[in-house]
Amino acid sequence: MIEILNIFYLFLISGIIFSFPLHNTYLKKKLSLTKLNLFEIYSLNTLIILTVFFIFSFFGININFIFFSILFLSLINFFYIDWKLFFNNFYLLIFFSLFYLVFSVEISTYPYLEWDAAVNWIFKTLNFKNNYSFQNLENVPGILGYPHLGTFIWAFFWEISFINHEYTGRLSFIFIYLLVFFSIIERLKINHFLKIVFLIFLIVISFDRILVNGYQEPLMFSLCAIFIMLLTQIHSSKNNFLIFLFMLICANLILWVKNEGMFFLMFLSIFILFKKQIENKYKLFLISFFIFLIFFKKYIFIYFFGNIIFGWQGYEFLPINNLFSFEILQRLPFLLFQVLMGFIKYPIYIVFILCFLIILIREKKISSSLDFLLFFLINIAMSVSIFYCTNDPNWMHHAKVGLDRMLYQTSGVYLFYIVNYLKNLELINFRFNS
To answer: By the 8 A CB rule, do 62 and 131 touch?
Structure first.
């Protein structure tokens, strides 16, 4: 019973903390955010709060001090919230809490950690839970070169929990993960029953139980999806400075969740290049700033730890002249088979491919889907090449346990394509800004 009460407590605390600051009526009007739905505002607040966590993680500040400071500001902010927005979404909030409860109970019932989480991520989490800084990570077990943002979030919610069990910190990933789906669902101009049906469909084709066992993939999934959500808010007829700012914030967070985030960020830039509403000078600025963020992260790791790694510990690239040898080429069938297994494991890929093929057959051109197609192909190629290009004799084992998870991290991007496809079929009335 106490665990159920603790789950409700963490849900309530998450709802309060992530309501700050943009649910403030004055700020929403001042920043022209009044057209965003409840969960989209929550998503923007999440980017802000996670950035606060990211900054504090470098200074070893007591987590309880951070918690009470943010909680205090959030409670003051409650006096300036437009509660009508919450009442209008009462049914969706109920279902949000139910989904959170179901996933949380599942985690609390089987709170074990998968291998990578048990030998790497948990030690970084303990570092922050004990109020040590980023610099102290060189003194804890695990791979030093792994980014740390997810583990700080994990430590934060574990520390403020009534129950001293590590899984309580992982429940925050579920809260952020669900925000993505509810942000999309709230755009649908259909009745509540159909919204829930469609919500269940999207979650079923996207979810994997293993990924809430201490891995960072659900957080990367959410941030990549939020990045695309921000892109859908860009219009050529208004000032997009604020959206650009949030895209830069989101980009930085992506880099500090997983090492492959720098590749994902470059792939996400494809959508910027294809976005007609973004002027070329802003496209150049955004992509240049992404590159700056990548080098800044590299500088931080070199400054504190003397190096930065790519892939797993000891990862080394094959010599270029060996890449196309018959021995190495024999890896391709196995790797492509693993990609296929990833598609089956995460049906969102199958649904995306079906939607793309139907559009291609109907329109007999790919121009309307070219950005998603390029993102899909480049992402697949990168995921395969990481295991194809290494001289590690255990490449097959790493591919078995890692390739599907790499595919999962960016799969949230395809949610928007699938929903937009349904809009074009006029099966639903969807407010999607393309």
So the answer is: yes
Answer with the residue of higher pLDDT: 394 or 103: 103
Cα–Cα distance for residue pair 156/167, rounded to 1 Å: 12
Q: What is the share, in percent, of the chain residues with pLDDT greater than 90?
A: 62
- Amino acid 434: pLDDT: 41
For 65, 202, 308, 410, the CA distances from 225, given in Å and listed in that order, are 31, 13, 27, 8
176-184 average pLDDT score: 95
Angle among Cα 79, 84, 81 to the nearest 5 degrees reads 20
pTM: 0.93
Confidence of residue 393 (pLDDT cuts 50, 70, 90): confident
Cα distance between residue 176 and residue 14, in whole Å: 9
- Listed residue (417, 427, 32) closest to 232, CA to CA: 417
Asked whether the predicted pLDDT for residue 324 surpasses 70, the reply is yes
Sign of CA dihedral 24, 27, 28, 29: positive
- What's CA 38's distance to the chain center, in Å? 19
The C-alpha R_g of the chain, in whole angstroms, comes to 21
Query: What is the residue-averaged pLDDT of the chain?
Result: 89
In this structure, what token pair is assigned to residue 245?
């700012």
pLDDT greater than 60 at residue 225? yes
- 217 neighbors 405 (Cβ within 8 angstroms): yes
Task: Return the closest-CA partner of residue 312 out of 261, 380, 260, 255.
Answer: 260
Residue 23's Cβ-count burial label (10 Å; 0-12, 13-18, 19+) is: buried
Q: Is the pLDDT of residue 431 over 50?
A: no
